[in-house]
Design a protein that fits this description.
Oligomer: heterodimer
Helix content of chain A: 25-40%
Mean pLDDT of chain A: 92
CATH architecture of chain A: 3-Layer(aba) Sandwich
Number of domains of chain A: 1
CATH topology of chain A: Rossmann fold
Strand content of chain B: 25-35%
Helix content of chain B: 10-25%
Structural class of chain B: alpha/beta
Largest sheet of chain B: 13 strands, mixed
Shape of chain A: globular
CATH class of chain A: Alpha Beta
Distance between the termini of chain B: 17 Å
Radius of gyration of chain B: 22 Å
Low-confidence stretches of chain A: none
Largest interface: A-B, 29 and 23 residues
CATH superfamily of chain A: P-loop containing nucleotide triphosphate hydrolases
Radius of gyration of chain A: 18 Å
Largest sheet of chain A: 6 strands, mixed
Order of helices and strands of chain A: EEEHEEHEHHHEHEEEHH
Number of helices of chain A: 8
Structural class of chain A: alpha/beta
Number of strands of chain A: 10
Chain lengths: ~250, ~475
C-alpha cells in the first residue's frame, strides 16, 4: 500500500523537529530515507507509528485509503502499519510466543477464533527463515537479547504481522554482515505485492541488499533531496556536507 | 452519569463489595472494655485460663502505644468498632444448613464449589464466628484435626495450652494484644507425625457488618515429618466507614515437618488489615509463607519464620498491590538462631493510582552460628508518577559464617515499553496489563494453579480502567 505524508510538522512540546515533510511511497515500492545524525529521521519513524511523546502540529498521514493522522498507535498497527524499532524494548516476563500470538490475533482481527496450531507452525517456519533458534519462542521478549537478535526479532514480527507498510528505523545499525543479510532477506520476502516500505538508514550498506526504488535525504527536519538509487553512491563518496548546503 | 450508576467511593470495581442486613444473634455495643472481653469469653463458655489470658491481652493493648512506624494507621477509632458479632447459633457441617443470606454470600464467593474441586477441608468464618466447618473423613481418621480454635479449646485443651501464645505472646505488639483480648474464630490444625495432607485446607474470612473488627486466631501444629498446606482467603463489603481486621497466626513446624501457608487477601478498600503471623521451624523443618495483599486500605503484615533447629528453611513470597488510597506495608522476617539454616524472601510489589507499596523486612542472624544463608529479593513496579514504592531491608547479623544476598530493584512502566507493545496492536490498557503480568510471572508460577488463576484475575480487576 502507499504511504502519503503531507506537510507534516511535529516535535516535542517545546521543540519542532519535523518542519513540513511531504513524502509519498507508492504501493509496492521500497524507499530509503537517509540523512545525518540528528536530522529527524527517527522522530519521523516514531511520529508515523503514533508515539504519544511527540506532538503533531500540522499535516496528514495516510496509508492507502486509511487516514492515520488521528489514530492511536495500536489502531495504526491493526490497520497494517509496522515500525521496526531502532532500539527494541525489553519486556520481562512475557514470552515471544505469547506476545506474538496476541499481536497476530489482533492484526488479523481474529480474537476468539484464532487458529493457534496454525500460528505456531507459521511462527516456526518464519524463525527458520530468519535463522533463529526455536528456543526464542519461550524467551522473554527482547530480554537479554544481543543487538543482532533484537533486530532479527523485529523482522520476525514484521513477517508474522504481514503489514501493508513498514518503516525500518536504522535496522542495520550495529549488525555484522551476516545479520544484515538475514534482515534484508526478511524485508525482500515481503516485496513484490502491494507491500511498501521506508528504510531509514545512516549508511548505504543495507541498501546493497535491499535495493530502494527511490532515495530521500533529510536534513534538519526537511527533505532536501529525492531521487533515484544513484544518490546513495554520491552520498557515500561525498558525505552529507554538500546536501546540508542544499538546504540553505 | 446516571445517579443510580454512581460508583460507591470509587470502589465499584471491587467484586465482593456486597453485604446482607446484619442479623447477628449476639452483638455487644461498640467499643472495648473488660465487660466486652468477659462477654465474648462467656459466649464461648471458655475455661478460666483463657479468660485470664484475654484479660492480660486487654491490659497490654491498653498500655501499648501505636506503632511509630509503618503505614498511616493513626486515624483508627477504637471506640467506633464492634468487637464481636455472632452471626448464627452454631457452626454447621453442611452448607445447606446455613442461614440463607450467609449461604448466598459463600456461594457468590465460590467457596462450596472450590471445596468440591480442590480442597480437603474448609472453615468459613462470618464476622466473629466460624459458621461452617468440614474436613475429609480420611484425614479425620488419620488423626488430623481441623477445627475452630473454640472447639480446640473445648476438646483439646492440652494441645492448645501447650502452644497458644507461645509463638506470638499476648504482649508482642499492640495488635497482637488486641487479638488476644477479643479473638474469635480462626483455625486450629494439628497434623500427627508422618502424615502428609496432600490437598490444601482452606479457611475463608468474611466480614459482613459495618464498623466491624474481625480478630481470628489461627494455630497450626505440624508434628514431626508431616506436611500441610493451608490457604486463607478474605473479603468484605464496601462501606464508607472503616473496619478492622487484626489476626494472629502461630505455626509450629516440628522436626522435619513442612508447612505452607498461602493467603490472598482481598479486603475491601475500607479495611485496616493489621496482622501478626509467625512460625517456628525446628530441626530440618520448612515453613513457607505465600502472602498476597491485593485489597484493604492499610496493611501491615510481615510473616516471620524463626529458624530454631539445624537444617531449618524458611521462605516468604510476598506480592502486594497498592492502588488508590491504599498503603500495603508488607514484607517478611527471618530469624536464624541455629546453624545450617537458610531463608529466602522474595517480594514483588506494584503501585498505581497514587497508592503506596512498601517492602519492610528483617533478616536476623544470632551469634556463633555456622553456615547460614539468606537471600532477599525485592522488586517494585510503579505504574504512574503519583504512586510510591518504598524499601526498608533491615539486617542484624551477628555471626561470621553467613552468606547474605540482597537485591532490590525498582522499575517504572516506561512510555517506551507501552509504545512498543501498542505499536504491535495492543491497547494501552492491555499493554500495561501485559507488563504487570510479566513482572509477576516468575512469582505466580510458584503458586498452586487455582491461586495463580485467582491472583491474575484480581490483578486484572485492579488494572481495569486504570489507564485513561
Amino acid at each position: 500500500m502507499n504511504l502519503k505524508i503531507t506537510n507534516l510538522k511535529a516535535g516535542l512540546p517545546d521543540k519542532e523537529i519535523l518542519k513540513g515533510i511531504s513524502l509519498e511511497v507508492p504501493s509496492g515500492e521500497v524507499h530509503a530515507l537517509m540523512g545525518p545524525n540528528g536530522s529527524g529521521k527517527s522522530t519521523l519513524a516514531n511520529v508515523l507509528a503514533g508515539h504519544p511523546q511527540y506532538e503533531m502540529t500540522a499535516g496528514t498521514i495516510a496509508m492507502g485509503n486509511v487516514d492515520l493522522t488521528e489514530l492511536e498507535a495500536h489502531e495504526r498497527a491493526r490497520a497494517g502499519f509496522f515500525l521496526a524499532f531502532q532500539y527494541p524494548v525489553e519486556v520481562p516476563g512475557i514470552t515471544v510466543g505469547k506476545f506474538l500470538k496476541r499481536a497476530v490475533e489482533l492484526r488479523r482481527g481474529e480474537e476468539g477464533k484464532f487458529n493457534v496450531s496454525g500460528y505456531i507452525t507459521e511462527l516456526r517456519s518464519a524463525m527458520d527463515f530468519m535463522g533463529m533458534d526455536q528456543g526464542f519462542i519461550n524467551r522473554y521478549l527482547n530480554e537479554g537479547f544481543s543487538g543482532g537478535e533484537k533486530k532479527r526479532m523485529e523482522i520476525l514480527q514484521m513477517l508474522m504481522l504481514n503489514p501493508n507498510f513498514a518503516v525500518l528505523d536504522e535496522t542495520d545499525s550495529g549488525l555484522d554482515i551476516d545479520a544484515l543479510r538475514i534482515v534484508a532477506k526478511g524485508v525482500n520476502k515481503l516485496r513484490g505485492g502491494k507491500f511498501g516500505s521506508l528504510v531509514i538508514t545512516h549508511y548505504q550498506r543495507i541498501l546493497d541488499y535491499v535495493k530502494p526504488d527511490k532515495v530521500h535525504v533529510m536534513v534538519e527536519g526537511h527533505i532536501v533531496l529525492s531521487g533515484g538509487p544513484d544518490i546513495v553512491n554520491e552520498l557515500e563518496a561525498r558525505g552529507y556536507d554538500w546536501v546540508k548546503e542544499m538546504k540553505k | 452519569m446516571n445517579q443510580a450508576e454512581a460508583p460507591v467511593a470509587g470502589l465499584s470495581d471491587y467484586k465482593y463489595g456486597f453485604s446482607f442486613p446484619d442479623k447477628s444473634v449476639f452483638k455487644p455495643d461498640k467499643g472495648l472494655s473488660e465487660d466486652i472481653v468477659r462477654a465474648i469469653s462467656a459466649q464461648k463458655n471458655e475455661p478460666e485460663w483463657m479468660l485470664e489470658y484475654r484479660l492480660r491481652g486487654l491490659k497490654a493493648f491498653q498500655r501499648k502505644p501505636m506503632p511509630a512506624w509503618g503505614a498511616e494507621i493513626g486515624d483508627i477509632d477504637f471506640d467506633n468498632i464492634y468487637y464481636y458479632a455472632k452471626p448464627a447459633n452454631q457452626a454447621v457441617k453442611s452448607w445447606k444448613d446455613l442461614p440463607e443470606d450467609i449461604l448466598a454470600t459463600y456461594d457468590r464467593l465460590g467457596l462450596p464449589e472450590a471445596e468440591k474441586n480442590f480442597l480437603a477441608g474448609v472453615g468459613a468464618q462470618y464476622d466473629s464466628e466460624v459458621v461452617y466447618h468440614s474436613i475429609k473423613e480420611e484425614l479425620e481418621k488419620q488423626g488430623v484435626l481441623f477445627l475452630s480454635p473454640e472447639q480446640a479449646v473445648a476438646k483439646h485443651p492440652d494441645i492448645v495450652r501447650k502452644y497458644f501464645g507461645t509463638i506470638i505472646p499476648f504482649n508482642d505488639n499492640k495488635f497482637a494484644a488486641l487479638n488476644t483480648a477479643v479473638w474469635s474464630g480462626g483455625s486450629f490444625i494439628y497434623v500427627p507425625p508422618n502424615i502428609r495432607v496432600e490437598i490444601p485446607l482452606q479457611a475463608y474470612f468474611r466480614i459482613n457488618s459495618e464498623n466491624f473488627g474481625q480478630f481470628e486466631r489461627t494455630l497450626i501444629i505440624a508434628d514431626e515429618n508431616s506436611f500441610v498446606h493451608y490457604i486463607e482467603g478474605c473479603t468484605a463489603p464496601v462501606y464508607t466507614t472503616d473496619s478492622l481486621h487484626s489476626a494472629v497466626v502461630e505455626i509450629v513446624a516440628e522436626k522435619g515437618a513442612r508447612v505452607r501457608y498461602s493467603t490472598i487477601q482481598n479486603w475491601s478498600g475500607d479495611v485496616y488489615n493489621l496482622v501478626t503471623k509467625r512460625a517456628v521451624a525446628k530441626e530440618g523443618a520448612t515453613v513457607e509463607w505465600v502472602d498476597g495483599n491485593i485489597g484493604s486500605k492499610r496493611t501491615m503484615k510481615y510473616p516471620a519464620v524463626y529458624l530454631m533447629g539445624e537444617g531449618a528453611h524458611g521462605e516468604v513470597l510476598s506480592i502486594a498491590f497498592g492502588g488508590k488510597g491504599q498503603d500495603q506495608d508488607t514484607g517478611g522476617k527471618m530469624v536464624h538462631t541455629a546453624s545450617n539454616t537458610s531463608s529466602v524472601i522474595t517480594s514483588k510489589s506494584i503501585s498505581k493510582d497514587g497508592g503506596t507499596a512498601t517492602y519492610r523486612g528483617l533478616v536476623k542472624i544470632a551469634e556463633n552460628l555456622k553456615n547460614v544463608k539468606s537471600h532477599v529479593v525485592c522488586d517494585a513496579l510503579i505504574l504512574d508518577r503519583d504512586s510510591k514504592s518504598k524499601t526498608y531491608p533491615y539486617m542484624e547479623i551477628e555471626s561470621d559464617d553467613v552468606s547474605m544476598e540482597h537485591e532490590a530493584r525498582v522499575s517504572r512502566i516506561s512510555e517506551d515499553q507501552l509504545f512498543y507493545l501498542m505499536s504491535r496492536g495492543l491497547t494501552e490498557e492491555e499493554a500495561s496489563m501485559m507488563i504487570v503480568n510479566g513482572f509477576l510471572d516468575p512469582l505466580v508460577k510458584q503458586l498452586p494453579m487455582e491461586y495463580a488463576v485467582e491472583l491474575n484475575r484480581l490483578i486484572e480487576l485492579e488494572m481495569e480502567g486504570s489507564v485513561g
